[in-house]
TrEMBL record:
Domain of life of the native organism: Bacteria
Keyword entries, A-Z: Aminopeptidase, Hydrolase, Manganese, Protease
Keyword Manganese in annotation: yes
Native source species: Marivivens donghaensis
Protein name: Leucyl aminopeptidase family protein
Length: 457
């Protein structure tokens, strides 16, 4: 995942649309026009055309961007074509601004391979860092996304709470951040009762990871759900629902990837990352339906479904993060299936009470091709999470508004001036340009782009 060496011999690659291809091809030789026709190239989205030279190599190449309809429906069109190009370094022309940045990032992301367990064939074409973009920034963002994907794709056998801690420690060491970890019964001693309750049945101890970086600027706290595997607990999931539960730590993977971006780019802020890392397992000491748990904040929580565990561990972490009153606190979690029903796998729903933050994020999401969608903290639904027996219910009956009620639950544990919550999926169900099937970051790049406006950087 890198750009081609700047001094590498490069093939000119021109991006063309369906609309302007006719004009472009009129400037080609008759032989080249005939070759393009034989190849069926008409500037369609993701199409590629290579024109041979007299030595049997490639004289120049074209990549199709399609029409306006195709561009409105598909992100990273250049990446779709890049994967089809023959081996070589390519110098991309015909794009500028945000479109050029998207193309460069998409090319890098398309080259991602998860090869921990099996060697994968590499993408043959590389891109010369285009002039007019901040190549170092794009590369840093791509590497943050790679970290997120690697963490999510790694199975729980090799990505339990200790392994997630090791990944956080490695990241902290890379960027000179400090890190503290509270493990096992230490969670009870330091008053993280719900993190302990959810993770105590596993043979790998639960823990709270606390990483800090930066000494000046506004304060940002990222909280990521780190459920390394979710059986559902005693309310055990059916096998069809358990198959992808290695990705239930996708929130933690996403905030670690975002943290890499923030630290690698040297943003002038004080960053804190909190990750409650647990496995929701089944054993004699597992927490039970109808148990009432105490929380760090002092609120009691009735357990009506042990499979609604992510909000429990996040609650203690959000309370802890709020105690320092950061300027902005953000949680990211693969929290509810209701969010997928609402917006599908491609959109990252987010919640905030602050319209300016929502606007900044929505604008940034379009600019960096990282789609998000605002959902409401709908106050009339607060009564749905109040069971009467305890202060809060972790899984209201009825099935309505599941993502909203989960977000409202989390908000009860935040005492900070501004809070934003992402209910992400963290998984690409089928391959798409720049996004192979498997783990994927969502919302991180949009948030990174919006932070300067949100925090006045």
């Amino acid at each position: 995942m890198n750009f081609a060496a700047p001094d590498a011999p490069a093939i000119t690659l021109e991006a063309v649309t369906s609309a302007n291809w006719s004009a472009v091809q009129n400037g080609l030789t008759e032989n080249a026009q005939a070759w393009a026709k034989v190849q069926g190239f008409d500037g369609g989205a993701g199409q590629v055309l290579t024109l041979p030279n007299t030595d049997g190599g490639i004289e120049r190449a074209f990549i199709g961007m399609g029409d306006q309809k195709a561009q409105s429906r598909q992100r990273f069109i250049v990446a779709a074509g890049a994967a089809k190009l023959p081996e070589g370094a390519y110098d991309l022309k015909g794009l500028e601004g945000a479109a050029l940045e998207e193309a460069a990032l998409g090319w890098l992301l398309a080259s991602y391979r998860f090869d921990r367990y099996r060697k994968q064939s590499e993408m043959k074409a590389t891109l010369v860092a285009p002039k007019g973009i901040d190549a170092d920034r794009i590369l840093t963002i791509a590497k943050g996304e790679r970290l997120t994907r690697d963490l999510i794709n790694t199975p729980a056998s090799d990505m339990g709470p200790p392994d997630l801690e090791a990944a956080a420690r490695k990241l902290a060491e890379e960027h000179g951040a400090s890190i503290e970890v509270t493990v096992g019964d230490g969670l009870l001693e330091k008053n993280f009762p719900m993190v302990h309750a959810v993770g105590r049945a596993a043979n790998r101890a639960p823990r709270l990871i606390d990483m800090r970086w930066g000494s000046e600027g506004p304060t940002l706290t990222l909280v990521g759900k780190g459920v390394c595997f979710d059986t559902g607990g005693l309310n055990i999931k059916p096998s069809s629902s358990m198959g992808l539960m290695k990705k239930d730590m996708g929130g933690s993977a996403t905030v670690l990837g975002l943290a890499h971006m923030i630290m690698g780019l040297g943003l002038k802020l004080r960053l804190r990352v909190l990750i409650p890392a647990v496995e929701n397992s089944i054993a004699g000491n597992a927490f039970r339906p109808q148990d009432i748990l105490n929380s760090r904040k002092g609120l009691t929580v009735e357990i009506n479904n042990t499979d609604a565990e992510g909000r429990l561990v996040l609650a203690d972490a959000l309370t802890y993060g709020s105690e320092e009153n950061p300027d902005l606190i953000v949680s990211m979690a693969t929290l509810t299936g209701a969010a997928r029903v609402a917006v599908g796998p491609d959109l990252a729903p987010f919640y905030t009470d602050h319209d300016d933050d929502a606007s900044a994020l929505a604008i940034a999401a379009v600019q960096v091709a990282d789609p998000v969608w605002r959902m409401p903290f709908h106050n009339p639904y607060e009564a749905m999470i109040e069971p009467g027996v305890a202060d809060l219910d972790n899984a209201p009956k009825g099935g309505f508004a599941g993502s909203i009620t989960a977000a409202l639950f989390l908000r009860r544990f935040v005492d900070a001036p501004r809070y934003m919550h992402f209910d992400i999926y963290g998984w690409q169900p089928s391959a798409a340009p720049a996004r192979p099937q498997g783990g994927v970051g969502q919302g991180a790049r949009a948030l990174l782009e919006a932070l300067p406006k949100m925090l006045g950087l």
